[in-house]
Amino acid sequence: PLRALPLFADEASMRVVEAMAGVADACVYFIAQPIKQQGTIDSNLYLLHHGTVAIECVGRGRVAELIEGGSFFGERGFTGLANRANATVRAATPIVLLFRF
């Protein structure tokens, strides 16, 4: 699943992910629990192992997008393209974040 994502498509990227896994957190969230809040400073990259999260953007309606296990979010802050979260992310189902770093 991670190899299917463009961010982790090559072998070197996967080696970086494997190395980071040793220092990353595994977290469990329950339905409606916020993971990150729009407007807050957040440079974490989140890899969603299991479950579904809802991406909520003020001004664009209640839920802009749903992301399912095997995907990631927070890449803009992680790569330095943004210093504040541009959306609120909440657990839409019970979820397991495999990495948060």
Brief overview, please?
By secondary structure, the protein is an alpha+beta fold.
Describe this structure in words.
The protein has helices at residues 11-21, 75-78, and strands at residues 27-29, 34-36, 46-50, 52-56, 65-68, 72-73, 88-91, 95-100. With 101 residues, the protein is an alpha+beta fold. Strands 1-8-3-6 form a 4-stranded antiparallel beta sheet, with no helix packed on it. Strands 2-7-4-5 form a 4-stranded antiparallel beta sheet, with no helix packed on it. A hairpin with an 8-residue loop joins strand 4 (52-56) and strand 5. The two termini are 19 Å apart.
Q: Give helix and strand order, one letter per element, not per position.
A: HEEEEEEHEE
Strand-residue proportion: 25-35%
Rounded radius of gyration (Å)? 13 Å
Distance between the termini: 19 Å
In percent, how helical is the residue content? Answer: 10-25%
Annotate the secondary structure layout:
Elements: H1 11-21, E1 27-29, E2 34-36, E3 46-50, E4 52-56, E5 65-68, E6 72-73, H2 75-78, E7 88-91, E8 95-100
Antiparallel strand pairs: 1-8, 2-7, 3-6, 3-8, 4-5, 4-7
Brief descriptors of the model:
101 residues, alpha+beta, four-stranded antiparallel sheet, 2 helices, 15% helix, globular
